[in-house]
Amino acid sequence: MERAITLDLDPNLQGYTEGTNLTITTDVPVFLDGSTITNDLKDVQAIFNVVGYIFTPTLLIVGVFANCMTILTMSSKSFSELTSRYILIALALSDTTCLMLQPFNKMFIIQSFGFDARAVSNGGCKLFIWLFKTSKLTSSWLIVTLCFERFVAVVYPLKIKQIFNKKNILVLITCEALPIGIFNGMWSFASQVINGICKIDAIFPDTKWKYRNFLIAGTSIYSFIPITIIMFLTPTIVWKLIQKRRSRQMLQHVSDRSTKKELRASLVTISVVVAFIVLVCPIATLFLIAYWQNLAVYGANNSIFFIAREIAQILEQINYSITFFLYIMCSDTFRRRALQILRRPCLSSKVAPVAFNSSSN
To answer: Residue 49 pLDDT > 90, yes or no?
Structure first.
């Protein structure tokens, strides 16, 4: 029997209800997860709204500032010989885009504005969701690229200049961003304005299975495939570094200084990789759970899912804000140049870049 699904915003829960219009005249609204309105959920929402008012602007300001500092630092003469700086600058740009767009998905932001700024038009909604998804997926694959660069530098040091020159890195970044943009463009069928709200997961009977396939593919591209690659490359990097250090310690005439520099350079990548795995996995997993449990991703369906989603989104925002601080903790060169920019923004630096990364033109 043919049926159409309409999604309505519930004024009490700020969640979505599904009205099933059968060929008969009956219209029975039910919650997506079959739950009912509870006072507990209202209380939880009120608590996380307060948390959101604190964390969302804080992470936005700190993250945008940190990513801008990364761009300024890596664009300075100190790192002019580093080809991998293009990866770090691209990563900072994609992270900044995510941070600036993420607040508009928050229901308390929509309530504060009195309208959904994403839902000015159906095309505007699709463009917003496309840009949001593309920046997130590109960020994930830039971390994979950074990890692969360190893998080549450690395992095949003689080939690093040949593989990771400026031209190859720019081509690689383009080859990552372009297919991701095309994929998200094809996925835009699920982004629609419904009752004044820009929905990221508008599902109808004729698009349910298509949406499922794109969701599985999208979450795999966003986290599961990158994490699988990273989990293979990172232990290899660590093992090779340990092996190199042992072999150099056996040669008394070889200075341990170069080994320490290589360890620091690798520590930067490893710290970024670990942060990505810990902070991104929860939100990707929740997207899949939301589909299989018939829950609205950005709607308040029940207390447990709502709490899990809010925590996962905070972790995701931290992931896009924390990279700069990992750099300054793990790299003396980066830290010194960043401090110079803060103290004297127009001062040219002569700090050598070799301590941060070994790849060059």
So the answer is: no
In 10 A of CB 211, how many CB atoms? 18
- 3-class secondary structure, 294: coil
How far is 76 from 91, CA to CA, in rounded Å? 17
- Which of 304, 358, 7 minimizes the C-alpha distance to 161? 358
Q: Report the alpha-carbon distance of residue 324 to residue 354 in Å, rounded.
A: 18
Residue 166 neighbours by CB under 8 Å, 6+ apart: 83, 86, 361
Element holding 258 (H helix, E strand)? helix 257-292
Distance CA 275, CA 242 (A): 22
Judge whether 147 and 233 are in contact, CB under 8 Å: yes
Residue 300: pLDDT band by 50, 70, 90 thresholds? low
CB 261 within 8 A of CB 356: no
Q: List 21's β-bridge partners, or say none.
A: 4, 27
161 vs 134, higher pLDDT: 134
* pLDDT tens column, 70-87: 999 998 887 877 778 899
Partner residues linked to 20 by β-bridges? 5, 28
78/330 Cα distance (integer angstroms): 17
125, amino acid identity: C
3-state secondary structure of 16: strand
Category of 15 on φ-ψ map: left (φ > 0), alpha (ψ -120 to 50) or beta: beta
Which residue type does 184 have? N
Residues in the chain: 361
Sign (positive/negative) of CA torsion 266, 272, 278, 280?
A: negative
In this structure, the dihedral spanned by the alpha carbons of residues 161, 265, 174 and 182, taken in order and rounded to 10 degrees, is 150
Cβ atoms of 5 and 18 within 8 Å: the answer is: yes
pLDDT digits (tens, 9 = 90+) for 195-209: 888 988 888 888 888
- Look up residue 93 and give its two tokens: 């740009």
**Is residue 326 a contact partner of residue 268, using CB atoms and an 8 Å limit?**
yes
Closest CA to 320 of 63, 57, 102: 63
H or E stretch including 52?
helix 39-74
> Which has the closest alpha carbon to 300: 14, 11, 76?
14
Distance of CA 175 to the CA centre of its chain: 18
